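Work through this protein:
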Amino acid sequence: MFPEYDVIVVGAGHAGCEAAVAVANMGGKVLLVTMNMNTIAQMSCNPAMGGVAKGQIVREIDALGGYSGIITDHTLIQFRMLNKSKGPAMWSPRAQSDRMEFASKWRQMLEANENIDFWQEMVTGLVVKNGVVKGVKTGIGLEILSKSVVLTNGTFLNGLIHIGEKQFGGGRAGERNSTGITEQLVGLGFESGRMKTGTPPRVDGRTLHWDRMELQPGDENPSKFSYTDTPLVQNQVPCHITYTSPLVHETLKDGFEKSPMFNGRIRGLGPRYCPSIEDKINRFADRERHQLFVEPEGRYTNEIYVNGFSSSLPEDVQYNALRKVVGFEDMKMFRPGYAIEYDFFPPTQLDISLETKLVKGLFFAGQINGTTGYEEAGCQGLMAGINAYKYVNDEEPLVIKRSEGYIGVLIDDLVNKGTNEPYRMFTSRAEYRILLRQDNADLRLTPIAKAIGMNHMDERMERVELKKDNQKAIEKYFEKYSIDPDVINAKLAEIGSSPLKQKVRLKSILARPNISMPMLLDVLPEVKEHLSQYDEETINLAEVTLKYEGYIKREQEMVDKMNRLEQVKLTDSVNYHDLVSLSMEAREKLTEIRPKTIGQASRISGVSPSDVSVLLVHMGR
């Protein structure tokens, strides 16, 4: 009935979809198994992609040949570039998506790929022989064989939904949970744990008083995520902002005695940076209000997502409290918020390729590794899919370095440091932020995608080479063009910048902190005319490179220094307990994680600089 597949992907959320297309676009035959074909790529929580650091990840996925950016561009209803008032390392694209169109477009693109087959059923276990995965077992007793398996189970592994004092099994509202896999993996020697996440109520937009809330429109000149020819959004749909109040908080507190968070029924640890509303008012008792983002679920639906009001309180408490929020006085609810507990597997049990250490050919991606967020899941799925197919072909895995992408930071953090709470990406987690900007992901990663044989990269590489050439041409122009004081001094005086006393290169003017490219073009028509031959994205890239040249150079020097440590390999045969000069904690952590290089070892929690020196001496360095 089934052929033997190169890779079977279990789960069709954001991680599973990216894993499947990665394998397929490298030429592999993949089976995507999901419990419900109608919920492929479902946006289970907020109808949005991107955000701080997350937007950079979506652009990196796109640069490596993944589909998240393309799907988002085709289905977004609002685009905003966050943190524009800060430095370019912090600029982060974010999009409101049409939730139903997002899932529909993903399914269309998956079904258009002839290398992807589908099967709708629950996977209850794995076929494992002599420590090597050979396929999966399903609920109706089928064994489907493959050379590799990627597990992307999301919140479905023994998922338990909580609403007040009610609790019932489920992986998502209206869908059953998945059983059997955790028990088998624990039997094979894996360590598992429990995590918790939550979602807010969905309400009827026809019953809200929009004029009582703050308007949050999209950007006047919206951009997009993908480096391909995807469309720019038209007729953007606004979001709105409102706030809780002391009255709302008092109403919520009336239900605390029935809260599963406070009475001990929920044991899993939730995301620190996305707490429930009851957790917020408990932890931040001095705050009189909390911001709520009122987000449409799509262009053609009245369903509204109340971002910031995640809750597992009884439904009547949620309802009564929400009706005391400004703009929600006559609100009708579509469904209450809920919390969900699910199984995860501490990611220190993985190699840097996302392959498990205990079972060869078995890869984990997404929330099963303790992460939270569509973007974090999608990039893990992409990397797990790539490396699963490389495993099948007996090739070295692809590892994105911390200096090459936020994807590399995320996976390196998970594998070396682990996590005991849902891991979310922030720009602060990356030490090379000025190198890992959202505007240069294609320059960083598309050559890598081309090198590993990802399909459709020829045209993308032509774009990358043209972008590089144009960027250098703009920079060279600014380095040679001299500007006369009479031309610019009036503008400099207007903005409080020091006047020129003699001719200087235009590059030195642009390097000033209060000078921007648009400002220069306003007073220099000749320069504006010269730059009209280049696209806006390349001009912006050149501006950032010129303005932050010193910072970029210093970060690159740090990268070069760290890369020297990455080149010193550590073999699996090293017995760390024999190296008595290492601290006991270092010996234990190094034995558990088995780093591949000195560089990786240096990033393990508990391994000190002196421990790294001991390892260098041991390796003859």
